[in-house]
Design a protein that fits this description.
The structure holds two protein chains of two kinds.
Chain A (H helix, E strand, L loop, with lengths): L15 E6 L8 H9 L7 H8 L4 E8 L6 E8 L17 E4 L4 E4 L9 H5 L6 E2 L26 E2 L5 H13 L12 H5 L5 E5 L6 H6 L4 E2 L11 E4 L10
Chain B lengths: L1 E6 L24 H13 L3 H28 L14 H25 L9 H22 L25 H21 L2 H10 L3 H10 L7 H34 L11 H27 L3 H4 L2 H32 L2 H12 L3 H18 L3 H4 L2 H27 L16 H20 L7 H10 E6 L2 E9 L1
Antiparallel strand pairs in B: 1-3, 2-3
The chains are: A alpha+beta, B mainly alpha.
């Protein structure tokens, strides 16, 4: 279990990556809902969500561009960037926040987490969610659990996994059929649910994959690139002059 | 033993410096037996007031610490006000605050011992006790802060079947090791100079106390070889604990400075926090000295205006150093002009926490620097108590501004939020009550004044007559 703290950017090559087209995003929050269903997120409830404890591994940040009346809305779905050089990893005292060598993602070991919340403080994207309480599931949500995903108890940190259970399932399937994973075969819940196909997922180490080809765009940018965290998510800038966001 | 004798100060040339030499504790010697009795007396004397306050503190600890914490453990951290993005709230503020308080004990005791500052003699013990009890509060506060406190032993590097070790990359791990080292070292450092006094108490008490002191004093009889060994050990500890003390608060500062956050990632945080710790710690020593000199029997003989005067001078120096570091930390970020750092500074100066920011500057810098230059004020114990209280309020606010204040602003404007404490308030009161309670109980169990040190000092100091004037002289003991 080595940390990426001593590695330089050149040594860390990404595997899975995502592309989010902000021109196509219309802020419908389907990704947020799909993610919560897929990953057994706690049902926080109105009071605590209003207090600021709503749990979402992906959130759609809404921004107003310009001033009234010349105003337009911009949306930015924000999720764990699965940094190649993640600030959350070295600060955990008990190795609960670690780097997956095989999938090149940041993973959180819920059972190891003791809840220091240092990782969340050090995440420049603020995408880590903490289980402040044990939130009970109201009927009928108590019958809706994904058996592939662990449920988390109070006092542990959690975050987006790029739907690692889906990645694993497809990899296992491909392995049993003795073939490679096809491009587009792995779909995280958010990408699957997006009605505008604003979220594209795939292998970023394969130059011919859809996600790699779409990333070669002059609208492309990386969140807080100056911090050197090597995010695996590329955004395509939205705004005036493009469809959907005027 | 008495190698050289030199005059401490010349006979008064100015009329205003014409003070009575007997004002100094070390020149106002009393017989050994009498002094032992005075200290023993102060330990035994308890009034109904003492027990009322003790009962009140025990109740407060039970309600505010035990019950509130139990409720928080049972329900989850959600009953506290900590929130996204203020993942760290008052618990960490209290941790840093108490570690700061605990610094003064060692600073006053070890540094002044190493520098052979004579005015330290009567209050080193009172200061060292603060170190140990303050660290206990710091440890409790950091435990409260954990989401799953029952698994805290996972931070201990112990061999286990999973083959897992803690991550030594994490500043929290350094913190854990530093604080536990400091707690261990400062407890031993408290204990070593205590041995002769415990032996004295053993010889002066009966019943369960005698058994208690006999066990703790480990058969100390005061022979020449025992003194030699004790002195050697104390000397080693006094020198060795100083770097430990500096490193502990530097590492606490690194918890913040190592993170990539605006307002935190500052290279000056290490020394800035050390100075801040000394600032609040010295102020706390002053407050404690005032309280024990007013409430404990015979303590006015030991704790005198000259001691407040000496501490006041130190506090003035630390105030200036703190101001220098604050300015240095602030101006670099301001001049740097990084968008997010400037946003944070603007938020602190004009946002809802602005009153805190300016109150901090007034309490930590303006008031001490405007009052402590004055000898008359320095020598008035209650004034020093008030200044100490003000500085401690200011230092607590400083930590509040650095931790939840800075956490309000991050690089994702969508998540900005203000922090309001909830159950943290009770737990804060609880730690303060526990500190006071431990201190009060300890004040009746162990001699708060290191009698042998005072006696040693009085032996070395004497008034000699040169012609018609009395001159204070000091013999160097080695």
């Amino acid at each position: 279990m080595t940390s990426s703290i001593f590695q330089t950017s050149a040594e860390v090559e990404g595997k899975w990556g995502m592309l989010i087209d902000q021109d196509l995003c219309m802020g419908c929050q389907a990704c947020v809902t799909a993610c919560a269903m897929e990953n057994n997120l706690s049902f926080v409830g109105e009071a605590d969500a209003g207090y600021g404890r709503g749990m979402a591994w992906i959130r759609t940040e809404r921004f107003w561009n310009g001033t009234y009346p010349n105003i337009s809305t911009g949306y930015q779905p924000m999720l764990c960037q699965q940094c190649g050089h993640a600030p959350c990893e070295p600060v955990c005292p008990v190795f609960a926040s670690v780097h997956s060598e095989s999938e090149q993602t940041n993973v959180q070991v819920y059972n190891r987490c003791i809840g220091t919340r240092y990782c969340a403080n050090n995440c420049p994207y603020q995408v880590r969610e903490f289980n402040w309480l044990d939130f009970p599931r109201p009927v009928p949500l108590n019958n809706q659990f994904n058996p592939d995903v662990t449920v988390r108890r109070r006092g542990v940190m959690e975050k987006c996994t790029f739907c690692i259970q889906r990645i694993r399932r497809v990899e296992d399937l491909a392995h049993s059929e003795n073939r490679d994973v096809l491009d587009g075969e792995v779909q995280p819940a958010c990408a699957q649910a997006c009605p505008a196909s604003a979220i594209v997922f795939g292998r970023i180490d394969d130059p011919n994959s859809q996600v790699s080809r779409l990333a070669h765009n002059n609208r492309g940018y990386i969140m807080l690139e100056e911090l050197g965290t090597l995010p695996r998510v590329t955004y395509l800038k939205g705004g005036s002059g493009h469809a959907g966001n005027s | 033993m008495l190698a050289t004798v030199k005059a401490l100060f010349r006979p008064a040339a100015h009329s205003e410096e014409h003070e009575d030499p007997a004002e100094h504790l070390l020149l106002d010697a009393r017989p050994r037996g009498e002094m032992n009795d005075m200290v023993m007396d102060s330990m035994h004397a308890t009034s109904w007031k003492f027990w009322t306050v003790t009962m009140f503190l025990i109740l407060t600890v039970l309600v505010c610490l035990v019950t509130a914490w139990g409720y928080m453990i049972a329900e989850g951290l959600g009953v506290a006000g900590v929130n996204q993005p203020e993942y760290w709230g008052i618990f960490l503020v209290n941790t840093v605050f108490w570690i700061g308080i605990s610094h003064a004990g060692t600073f006053v005791s070890a540094l002044l011992r190493v520098l052979k500052a004579e005015f330290r003699r009567p209050f080193t013990r009172a200061a060292e006790l603060m170190t140990t009890f303050g660290l206990i509060q710091a440890g409790l506060s950091i435990f409260m802060h954990l989401g799953r406190v029952w698994l805290v032993y996972w931070m201990v590097p112990y061999p286990n079947e999973r083959g897992l070790w803690p991550d030594f990359h994490s500043p929290l791990m350094w913190d854990f090791l530093a604080i536990s080292t400091y707690l261990l070292a400062s407890t031993m450092y408290l204990f070593l100079p205590l041995i002769p006094d415990l032996a004295m108490a053993r010889d002066h008490s009966t019943g369960w106390r005698k058994i208690f002191y006999r066990i703790l004093s480990m058969g100390f009889r005061g022979s020449e070889s025992e003194w030699t060994h004790l002195k050697t050990a104390m000397n080693i500890f006094a020198f060795a604990i100083l770097p430990v003390m500096f490193s502990v608060h530097t590492i606490v500062a690194w918890d913040f400075a190592m993170a990539i956050r605006p307002g935190w990632s500052s290279t000056i945080f290490g020394p800035y926090f050390v100075v801040g710790a000394l600032h609040s710690g010295l102020a706390a020593v002053t407050m404690v000295l005032f309280i024990i000199s007013r409430t404990m029997k015979n303590m006015k003989y030991f704790i005198r205006p000259e001691h407040f005067d000496g501490l006041g001078k130190l506090m003035l120096m630390i105030t200036m150093t703190w101001g220098y570091f604050f300015f240095n930390d602030y101006i670099v970020e301001w001049y740097g002009g990084d968008t997010i750092a400037r946003t944070l500074q603007k938020f602190l100066e004009t946002g809802p926490l602005a009153w805190m920011f300016f109150l901090m500057l007034i309490c930590n810098f303006a008031i001490p620097i405007l009052t402590l230059w004055n000898k008359k004020l320095r020598r008035t114990p209650w004034v020093m108590f008030v200044i100490g209280l003000i500085i401690n309020i200011g230092m607590w606010l400083e930590r509040y501004i650095i931790i939840p204040g800075s956490l309000s602003i991050n690089r994702m404007p969508f998540t900005w939020r203000i922090y309001f404490p909830r159950v943290e308030v009770f737990l804060t009161i609880g730690t303060f009550a526990l500190f006071l309670l431990l201190y009060m109980l300890a004040s009746r169990l162990i001699p708060l004044v290191p009698v042998w040190e005072v006696q040693e000092g009085q032996l070395a100091h004497s008034l000699s007559k040169f012609g018609k004037t009395r001159v204070a002289t000091k013999a160097e003991i080695e």
